[in-house]
Specification:
single chain, alpha/beta, Rossmann fold, five-stranded parallel sheet, 10 helices
Length: 230
């Protein structure tokens, strides 16, 4: 086998999708991965899983050293089973628990610390290692996979984003209220875009897509056109 053929065999395509909460990243990334036959990687689920474990262990979210030690002995797996993402935390399914409002309200304390983020980069890269993958989050194109072959940045009107998140949470969180979720999203937007470590931002080579008036499949169609795929 020649060197060129060997190089082709080890090349894997990474598609990075970034954007704020409620922009449709998860829905679009899942659908895109399914259409292309790629692995779907939700990096936010990793931060949520760590946040949940810190809460369950009763640790101080501000205790950076203790959280880092906890991460070092934590196993996080993302599995796509029957077209659904399953998140395993130390081999326990926490897919539903990590989407609770209590976790959402506290995830910033974990995601805002440099030492914690640097440890979780390994987890995120491992999840997309050795496969073609659609990876979504808030710093995929800037930090995790800055050399990704294709980068997209999804955004939408904040009120539309709040309604989407409300629809997602209503089934799992009976206490979800639209006005509260709207304020939470505004707060997260500010926190994500102004944090000192890996702030949410659109990189120059990312393609912007406004999803406000688009159905998920329309967004996937738009991405595929930019990938020159159908």
């Amino acid at each position: 086998m020649n060197k060129a053929a060997s190089a082709l065999e080890i090349f894997f395509l990474i598609i990075a999708i970034d954007g704020p909460a409620g922009a449709g990243k998860s829905t679009v990334a899942k659908a895109l991965a399914t259409r292309l036959g790629f692995k779907y990687v939700d990096t936010g689920a990793i931060y949520r899983a760590v946040t949940l474990k810190v809460m369950n262990e009763g640790l101080d979210l501000e205790d950076e050293e203790a959280v880092c030690k906890l991460i070092d002995k934590t196993k996080i797996e993302l599995k796509y089973v029957n077209s659904k993402l399953t998140v395993l935390l130390d081999e326990v399914d926490v897919t539903v628990e990590i989407r609770s409002q209590s976790v959402t309200n506290k995830i910033f304390f974990v995601s805002n610390k440099a030492s914690i983020r640097s440890r979780l980069i390994r987890h995120q890269k491992d999840c997309a290692s050795g496969v073609n993958a659609v990876v979504e989050g808030r710093d995929i194109g800037t930090v995790i996979f800055p050399d990704a072959e294709k980068k997209f940045f999804l955004n939408a009107d904040v009120n539309v984003r709040a309604k989407r998140r409300y629809s997602e949470l209503a089934g799992n969180d009976p206490a979800a209220e639209l006005n509260r979720i709207l304020e939470d999203i505004k707060r997260r937007d500010k926190n994500d875009s102004t944090r000192q470590v890996a702030p949410l931002m659109k990189v120059e080579d990312a393609i912007s897509i406004d999803t406000t008036n688009l159905a998920p499949e329309e967004v996937v169609d738009s991405i595929c056109k930019n990938l020159d795929m159908k």
